[in-house]
Design a protein that fits this description.
Elements (H helix, E strand, L loop, with lengths): L9 E3 L2 E3 L6 E5 L7 H14 L3 E5 L3 H13 L4 E5 L6 H4 L5 E4 L1 H6 L6 H14 L3 E7 L5 H6 L4 H18 L5 E6 L3 H14 L5 E4 L8 H14 L6 E3 L10 H15 L15 E4 L11 H11 L9 E5 L5 H4 L5 E5 L3 E6 L2 E7 L3 H16 L4
Parallel strand pairs: 3-4, 3-10, 4-5, 5-6, 6-7, 7-8, 8-9, 9-10, 11-12, 12-13
Antiparallel strand pairs: 1-2, 13-14, 14-15
Bound molecules: iron/sulfur cluster (SF4).
Iron/sulfur cluster binds next to loops.
């Protein structure tokens, strides 16, 4: 058995996270939240596969109503993912067991209101409704104050942002929270979580490699991070974020349990670092915000198309929507984020244009070829 860090216990519905309780595997629904039938069925499928917590995204009042219905139809412990509007926490909280907010998005929304006030609002809502909280920091959406302060240390920015929000919650007497520090690079996830665990050993950690991509590569990246962290006692709940079509979504949960079983039995498979000298395709796990159902197929086609570039250090990011697509593709060499009718193509932070779905692969191949040619020394 692995010695776990002495984090405090945080109850989420019927499960407890931290304080030596078994590591909780969780997942997220990718069906449209307004489709009550499909989302209830997926929440149940994830629960039956072994998800201790199931997350659902809610972005509008209509989705709040749907969530109320979904709550009646599933016995899963539910977490809500708030991205755009923290105020939705008020109508949502009575339907869920946990509220996840992103400090970066919280900073951008209602800029005239101090962040501390918004955090106090969330803590009050959570407290009144018997909800836990997650401070969910993503390397791709850190608030600009931390980005400026930690210009050469993105992991430091992530850790500082999480620590600052812990202090805000502590200051208002709300301690029923967990923290996540995610990135699409397993090495950054390892470093961020190690640094945070040193700083705040009392706070339970939710581990995840965001936009890990398609299986099996996505599972391998995630396993590398989890093996390095869990074997050191860091991590109380995990999510394996995979790009999968809806009927296969429970595979995320099974992959999480498999990794935990392997670690507990001493079956380690990772090398200490993720190789950064090869083609790296990152893609989001999709969620209810996906704007075109062709997204998963597109991610698979991008992987197949670019196999010939395996030996080149090129990162391609494929994202499902406008919420995280534009920002999370900035650091990739080439980025694609899906709109309803077009795929937005980027080279680094620069937008190259909106390309129809049936033309995007040809266009992408040209860009990959150009990158390879530019990096190949002339004879
Ligand atoms: S990029 Fe959009 S579709 Fe993909 S997981 Fe993030 S919010 Fe969901």
């Amino acid at each position: 058995m692995i010695q776990r860090n002495p984090t405090r216990s945080v109850r989420v519905g019927a499960v407890r996270v931290g304080a030596g309780h078994p590591v909780v595997v969780q997942s997220m629904c990718a069906t449209p939240t307004r489709d009550v039938e499909a989302t209830s069925a997926q929440a149940e499928a994830l629960r039956e596969a072994g998800a201790g917590i199931v997350r659902i995204a809610v972005d509008s009042r209509k989705e709040v109503e749907a969530l109320g219905e979904i709550r009646q139809r599933t016995s899963a412990n539910l977490s809500v993912d708030l991205q755009e509007s923290y105020r939705l926490a008020a109508p949502v909280a009575r339907h869920v067991d946990k509220i996840r907010y992103n400090p970066g998005h919280l900073w951008h929304h209602e800029k005239s209101r101090p962040v501390e006030d918004k955090v106090r609002f969330l803590a009050d809502v959570a407290g009144e409704n018997d909800c836990a909280m997650r401070i969910g920091v993503n390397c791709g959406s850190i608030d600009p104050r931390h980005q400026d302060r930690f210009r050469d240390d993105p992991v430091g920015a992530m850790v500082q942002s999480a620590a600052e929000h812990c202090e805000m919650l502590d200051a208002v007497g709300f301690t029923r929270y967990v923290v996540s520090l995610k990135d699409s690079d397993p090495a950054q996830v390892i470093e961020g979580n190690r640094r945070f665990a040193e700083l705040r050993p009392d706070v339970p950690l939710h581990l995840g490699v965001t936009e890990a991509g398609l299986p099996p590569e996505g599972i391998i990246k995630t396993r590398i991070a989890f093996e390095q962290l869990l074997s050191r006692g860091i991590g109380d709940t995990i999510r394996v974020s995979l790009t999968l079509p809806n009927p296969r979504k429970p595979e995320e949960v099974r992959a999480g349990h498999q990794i935990l079983d392997d670690i507990a039995s001493g079956r380690f498979r990772s090398v200490p670092e993720f190789p950064n000298d090869r083609l790296n395709i990152i893609s989001c796990p999709s969620c209810s915000r996906v704007e075109n159902e062709k997204f998963v197929e597109l991610a698979e086609e991008v992987r197949d198309l670019t196999r010939y570039a395996q030996d080149h250090a090129i990162t391609i990011a494929v994202m499902g929507c406008r919420v995280n697509g534009p920002g999370e593709t900035d650091d990739a060499d080439l980025g694609l984020w899906c709109g309803p009718a077009f795929v937005n193509l980027k080279r680094g932070p620069r937008t190259l244009g909106a390309v129809p779905y049936d033309e995007i692969l040809t266009r992408l191949k040209t860009e990959v070829d150009n990158l390879i040619a530019a990096r190949t020394p002339r004879p």
